[in-house]
TrEMBL record:
<protein>
    <submittedName>
        <fullName>Molybdenum cofactor guanylyltransferase</fullName>
        <ecNumber>2.7.7.77</ecNumber>
    </submittedName>
</protein>
<keyword id="KW-0342">GTP-binding</keyword>
<keyword id="KW-0501">Molybdenum cofactor biosynthesis</keyword>
<keyword id="KW-0547">Nucleotide-binding</keyword>
<dbReference type="InterPro" id="IPR013482">
    <property type="entry name" value="Molybde_CF_guanTrfase"/>
</dbReference>
<dbReference type="InterPro" id="IPR029044">
    <property type="entry name" value="Nucleotide-diphossugar_trans"/>
</dbReference>
<keyword id="KW-0460">Magnesium</keyword>
<dbReference type="InterPro" id="IPR025877">
    <property type="entry name" value="MobA-like_NTP_Trfase"/>
</dbReference>
<dbReference type="GO" id="GO:0061603">
    <property type="term" value="F:molybdenum cofactor guanylyltransferase activity"/>
</dbReference>
<keyword id="KW-0548">Nucleotidyltransferase</keyword>
<keyword id="KW-0479">Metal-binding</keyword>
<feature type="domain" description="MobA-like NTP transferase">
    <location>
        <begin position="2"/>
        <end position="146"/>
    </location>
</feature>
<keyword id="KW-0808">Transferase</keyword>
<keyword id="KW-0963">Cytoplasm</keyword>
<dbReference type="Pfam" id="PF12804">
    <property type="entry name" value="NTP_transf_3"/>
</dbReference>
Amino acid sequence: MLAGGLSSRFGQDKALYVYRGKPLIGWVLESMSGASEVFVVANRPYPGFGTVYQDLRRGGDTLSGLHAALAHAKHDWVAVAACDQPFFNADFWDFMLGQIKPGSLAVVAVERGFFEPLGSLYHKSLEPEVLRRLGAGELKMQALLHSIPHVALDKAELEDRFGRYLFINANYPEDLP
């Protein structure tokens, strides 16, 4: 789970914002509770929320967080979500895992050519390519996803199946339903 942003538009640390009785970070981590390993990638501590790893290469936004997640992961596939995506659940992650195809390096939702890089699965073998991109200043997640073998899932179909707010990105508290 990535909690690396500054939350400047949100007005407070998004990860700790209490939504429906629980911090946003808690909702996301709960959705991943069936995973063999769960950890947070953030550049600040989150006591009480498990292991927290910092970015290994700072300055690359989501790509830096993805790199840290891939570098620290012990398993081949890594589920990646942001701290402000409280509508994922275990059924969603199980479904995503069921979509993995041989040779694919990511399982990701797409809408009209735009990938949803968070709420996706990434193969650990991507770590060297992500590190290379960070070193070269190629920081766009869209470019990475367009360049690798992936399974593209229709975002609208996923939202129909798991809820219309599935991929919400809450930049302000009022963005949350």
